[in-house]
Amino acid sequence: MLQSLTTNLSAIAVTLHVLSAVIWVGGMFFAHFALRPAAASLLEPPLRLPLMSQVLARFFPWVWVAVVLLWATGLWRIFGSIGGMGNAAIYIHIMLTIAAVMTALFAYIFFRPFPGLKQAVAQGEFKQAGKHLATIRQLIHTNLWLGLITIIVATGGRMYLY
Questions:
Q1: pLDDT, tens digit (0-9, with 9 covering 90-100), for 73-114
Q2: Domain that holds residue 113
Q3: CB atoms < 10 A from the CB of 102, how many?
Q4: How far is CA 127 from CA 118, 123, 155, in A?
Q5: Residue 77 DSSP class
Q6: Domain with 34 in it: what CATH number?
């Protein structure tokens, strides 16, 4: 019975982990490669910047949930299933390191340029808002690539990185 419960909890943890990664990385991919270029080609700054500010305001709470779930489920799997970092394969160490960088970048985006973007948009200072959005875009681009690398490591790591 205990083995069955552990197996079920493991399955739930892996599922939540993967869904969280899909939401975060997929959202960044969509925003960077689909939404932003379409908005830039169709809308002038007085419309585009409020749109992007509101899109990020709706996306970032989901990212916070994803970040919390990724850390909780990842650490639970490391310490609950494989017996700690000493037993973890190198690909798990790589994923954990990239996760720390991604989390720090997201926290920086959320607490530094994002409030500036919202404030500049609210005050109609579109040049300043554009600068904040450019910073956010560059950092999201970096985080997107880190997320894609993490997915590659997560899916291929067992085969290539012991």
A1: 999 999 988 999 999 999 999 999 999 999 999 999 999 999
A2: 2-160
A3: 22
A4: 13, 11, 42
A5: I
A6: 1.20.120
